[in-house]
Prior knowledge:
- It is elongated and about 100 Å long.
- The protein has helices spanning 54-62, 82-88, 101-104, 109-116, 164-210, 215-242, 254-268, 291-309, 368-378, and strands spanning 5-6, 26-30, 45-49, 67-72, 77-80, 128-131, 138-147, 153-162, 250-252, 275-279, 287-289, 314-326, 329-340, 382-388, 391-399.
- Helix 5 (164-210) packs antiparallel against helix 6 (215-242), helix 7 (254-268) packs across helix 8 and helix 8 (291-309) packs antiparallel against helix 9 (368-378).
- It has nine helices and 15 strands.
Amino acid sequence: MTFARLLPLMPLGVPRDLVSHYSEPLVTTPVLRLVSDTGVAAVRHTRLAGGIDGAFYRHMVAGMRNGVLAITRDGAVALINDEALRIFGLAQNDAWLGQPLAKAFAQHPDVVRVLTSAFALDLLPNRVEMRLKPTGTVIGYTLGHVRDDRGQVIGAAMYFKDLTRVEQLVERERLRDRLVAVGELAAVFAHEVKNPLAGIEVAAGLLRRRVSSSPEAQQLLSDIMADAKMANGIVQEVLDFVRPIQLQVETTALVEAVGAAIQQADTMDRRGQVKVDVDVPPTLPRIQADRHRLTQVFTNLLVNAYEAMQGQGHVIVRAVPTRIDESGIGREGVLIEVADDGPGIPADAKDKVFDLFFTTKAKGSGLGLAVVRRIVDAHDGRLDLRTSRNGTTIRIMLPVAGSDDAQR
């Protein structure tokens, strides 16, 4: 059972008769009053049915799907419900009540700043977004004043909702729009560039035949042809990247996708003495996904690991069932990790490795990991990276059922 955490002395100015038992069939009693962003006072009384007591209000606030946080005029935490504790990542207990807001929310200085500033404002923020720095959670909040029976401000309240999932969907739509625009430009660019590249490659091949007696010229022309092929391949990769992903969703066994990826990776890059272990139980739930796209994801990750370890080391691919928590709603999912014991990723590159065209390799295109992120996003999945001097682990969470958006 959940409860709204509320100071027992009711410091928000709620009259003691509010929590008494009502014998009248319908009465009018003063309650917490809030001022909206328009500055107009809300209704100063609420109508209560007979028999309603203070526990009703605690259960009402506890049952809200939004977070509620209220403080007194002196900055003490007066009320907080379970949803607020979850969003802020605080322990589900009453220890926060009565504490100074600045102390209880030391990890959330923006929340402290916004809520305490309410006492100096008449026009309060309404439907404003904030990103919580410790977790990256995005909330949308509205502030309200708490007034006593005489209309004096005695507290402030914040009402908020976890918008992280909404923010992710909006950003995904923005990315799609950008990719459509880039795709149109890339199509024109590819047409104009691929033809000259093909001409260079053909001309170099013909010339190489004519200078067969000169090994030095042969080598130079071979280098020209190889570079032309690489440039043509990059142009094609860009085209493939900016085209909308059309997933061919089917019931997919991850162990099969990982096995196919290992075979493909071995043909694309020199594995050398790198040992690859697979810990993907066949009993793992099958997921609704595009098997070939997932194979591409694991192939790219394995190739990156091989290149980072330069032919020596250990890679392990493991998967376990998990729960994907989104705004308090859990979904059945699968967690896949691709871990290597290579040198790790430099600190200044960690936040950029999934960006388009970012690469630390002399001849890299910067598309491999960007493609990984795009495919994971298309499957409504989550992507994370952990790295140190002892190696790098890429963590992918995929829903078992997927979403309607992912299956289009």
